[in-house]
Amino acid sequence: MKIHKFPFSVAYADTDAGGIVYHGRYIEFAERARMQWLHGIKLLDGDIGFVVRELNIKYLRPLRLGDDFIVESRITKVGAASLSVEQKIVKDEEICAILYATAAYIGANLRPKRIPDFIVSKIS
Question: pLDDT of 73-92, one tens digit each?
Answer without folding.
Answer: 999 999 999 999 999 999 99
